[in-house]
Amino acid sequence: MNFTLHQLKIFKTIVEKKSITKAAVELNMTQPAASIQLKNFQDQFDIPLSEIIRRRFYVTDFGKEIYLIIDEILDKTETIQYKTEAFKGLLSGKLKISVVSTGNYVMPYFLSGFLKKYPKVELVLDVSNKTTVIKDLEQNLVDFSLVTVSPNHLEIEELPLMDNHLVLVASKENKIISEKGISIFKTIPLIYREEGSGTRHTMQQFFKKEKISPKIKLELTSNEAIKQAVVANIGVSIVALLSIKNELLQNELKIIPAKGLPLKSVWKLIYLKKKTLSPVAKEFLAYVASEKETVYKNYFSWIDKTDFN
User: Fold this and answer.
1) Are 48 and 42 within 8 A, CB to CB?
2) What's the gap between Cα 75 and its chain centre?
3) Which one of 29, 49, 65, 98 is at 20 to 30 Å from 297 when CA atoms are compared?
4) Measuring CA to CA, which residue among 244, 264, 102 is closest to residue 172?
5) How many other CB atoms sit within 10 Å of the CB of residue 127?
6) pLDDT value at position 86?
7) Residue 202 contacts residue 168 (beta carbons within 8 Å)
8) CA-closest candidate to residue 169, choices 265, 248, 259
9) What angle do CA 174, 176, 182 make, to 5 degrees?
10) Residues 49-92 pLDDT 10s
11) What is the CA radius of gyration of the chain?
């Protein structure tokens, strides 16, 4: 056999993307070039690694076994590179973080200074809903996860970063009358996040505690979609305050005072208790712990000046 690391990377990417075309885009190659490299790699085996059925790419059982070996090989080659950089006195390696969607308004500010300090570090950041983020952590696919709701079924360590405030918002055009009482939620229809969302979980815990059955007008799968729907005066919703800074400044949204709000939770960086952290992960954890107050002061202190009444 005479295959190259480039061919291994192409096969690995095709398997992960489940598409030659998507893999080619990921690798900045043309589709024909990726197909040729895949064929050259497969020709070195007597057993098929993959097959095309009705124009869809499928990996054979043998191909899946080869994929796992390739994954280990490529991981080792990256380790060689990182070890070389380490001997030069440079911190390098991959930092893998999964973030719940609203956390996208938080995590970049904790990453910016770290990545400037250590430019050799390669960041892999995945933004998804709470269910997927916790699954990634459970399967040890990431170093850290950023959440507000911790999983009960996993043994984890936590590093609290900052408070999260959830507020009731409406369009500036909405004529809703502010109420101090909890009854407001019994009369106004709400736009909800999808199941599996941390924001929805916090809302549901609040309604359960107060014995309220709110009216659900519709469900949307992203915080951005909810914001746009509220700005368009389709309905009202409970969202993270830090996600609507621009809309408040631009006078597109208003906060509706209500008893029990804002709901409060805590943004925290979590990781598996038994996980052996890489040098990069250890350094990032130490960096965040030492810099979190400075980051909050520089980027989030406006929250403390917000009027919720």
Assistant:
1) yes
2) 23
3) 98
4) 244
5) 17
6) 58
7) no
8) 248
9) 140
10) 988 888 788 889 998 999 999 988 887 777 777 666 655 555 66
11) 24
Q: Which residues of 212-235 are buried (b: 16+ CB within 10 A; e: fewer)?
A: eebeeeeebebbeebbebbbeebb
pTM, 2 dp: 0.70
Residue 234 carries which DSSP code?
S
Cβ atoms of residues 295 and 112 within 8 Å = no
Assess contact for 307 and 257: CB atoms under 8 A.
Answer: no
- For tokens 């291994």, the residue is 8
- Comparing CA positions, the residue from 100, 266, 99 lying closest to residue 197 is 100
Following CA atoms 199, 205, 209, 212 in sequence, which dihedral angle do they give, to the nearest 10 degrees?
60
Domains, the chain, with CATH or none: 5-86 (1.10.10.10), 88-162+266-305 (3.40.190.10), 164-265 (3.40.190.10)
Cβ-in-10-Å burial (0-12, 13-18, 19+) of 236 comes to buried
pLDDT, averaged across the chain: 87
Sign of the alpha-carbon dihedral angle for 156, 124, 38, 73:
negative
One DSSP character per residue, 76-142 reads: HHHHHHHHHHHHTT---EEEEEEEEGGGGGTHHHHHHHHHHH-TTEEEEEEEE-HHHHHHHHHTT--
Residue 134 structure tokens = 């916790």
Amino acid code (one letter) for 149:
V
Measured between its terminal Cα atoms, the distance across the chain in Å is: 71
d(CA 267, CA 149): 8
Q: Identify which of 53, 71, 54, 55 has the alpha carbon closest to the alpha carbon of residue 16.
A: 71
Tell me how crowded residue 33 is: count the other CB atoms within 10 A of its CB. Answer: 12
Taking Cα atoms as reference points, which of 246, 243, 241, 242 lies closest to residue 262? Answer: 241
- Tell me, what's the pLDDT at 181? 52
